Amino acid sequence: MSHHKHLTPIEREKIFLLHSQNKTLSYIAKIIHRDKSTVSREIARNGYNGAYSPSAAHTKYLERRTNCKPKLKLSNPEIFKYVRDKFLELKWSPEQICGRLKLEKSDLYVSYTTIYRAIYSGKFDTDKERASNGNRGAIRKLRHRGKSRHTKGYIEKRGKIPISNNISDRPQEANNRTRIGDQEADTVIGKSGGACLVTLVDRKSRFLISSKAKKKDSVSVKDTMISCLTGQPCHSITPDRGMEFAKHAEISVALEKVKFYFPLPHHPWQRGTNENTNGLLREYFPKSYDLNDVAEFFRLAA
């Protein structure tokens, strides 16, 4: 049998010739080294009134191949310009661009995964981007700067903290964002060894409460979280798995037994609201920034 997945134009010519000579399907299949069902399906699909045209059959095949390929929405010049301008000029993330289009109920909607694919494939690269960022091009415009992520099988070498609850145990009210008070927690660091920002984002409202901790250690982060959340609606907390949250049990007691639900290792999208908010903060507080200069306590709507 032939190893070709699809019939070739030459094979279609042979089918036409043998079929016009009233040869059986089995005979035709044997001659072209194809299965009988392949020949039968080809004639039934592309024949008309008992006749079979190889050129018409191949044209139909090419049309079907074209139609089965997904239409790339970024091939629309208007969508491409909108996304490119927001990404390169305004420094919006793919998620922000997608969210804005949804909010505007625009006919120009495109998914953020499509935008990411375009960025990584170099569709937004310019001569300027290539000159300043080399082969990375516009990828370096992403908030994570196109850095590599841990691959499957990566072994965590940092210290591990005992967790109280897995994210799979988190209540549906928190998962579905149906109530105020389900927080996602993380930290934003500045200069090495200095202060950090503790960030707490409500899953439903996306409201951010952030406060400075003297250091990125478990004691400082614990005290800062208790200060931030005392008197605030708080049903659950989904933190990062870093050592700075090692004293989560003490925080839970101080906040009237609020439960912590920990995501899986290297699954930052399970705290996606906080991750995206921290990305926004990074635009104003880069890693080189001395967070000791930040006011002790502030709140932002995000």
From TrEMBL:
The family database entries (PROSITE patterns) matched by this protein are listed as: INTEGRASE, TRANSPOSASE_IS30
Gene Ontology BP annotations: DNA integration; DNA transposition
The positions making up the signal sequence are none
Presence of keyword DNA-binding: yes
Gene Ontology CC terms, in alphabetical order: cytosol
Pfam families reported in the protein's UniProt record? HTH_38 (PF13936)
InterPro entries (alphabetical): Integrase_cat-core (IPR001584), IS30-like_HTH (IPR025246), RNaseH-like_sf (IPR012337), RNaseH_sf (IPR036397), Transposase-Integrase (IPR051917), Transposase_IS30-like (IPR053392), Transposase_IS30_CS (IPR001598)
**Does DNA-binding show up as a keyword for this record?**
yes
**Highest taxon above the source species:** Bacteria
UniProt KW keywords: DNA recombination, DNA-binding, Transposition
Boundaries of every Integrase catalytic domain copy: 167-302
Q: Name one GO molecular function term.
A: transposase activity
The record's family statement is: Belongs to the transposase IS30 family.
- Which PANTHER family does the UniProt record give? TRANSPOSASE, TRANSPOSASE INSI FOR INSERTION SEQUENCE ELEMENT IS30A-RELATED
What does the function comment of this entry state? Required for the transposition of the insertion element.
Q: What is this protein called?
A: IS30 family transposase
In its UniProt entry, the species of origin is given as: Mogibacterium timidum
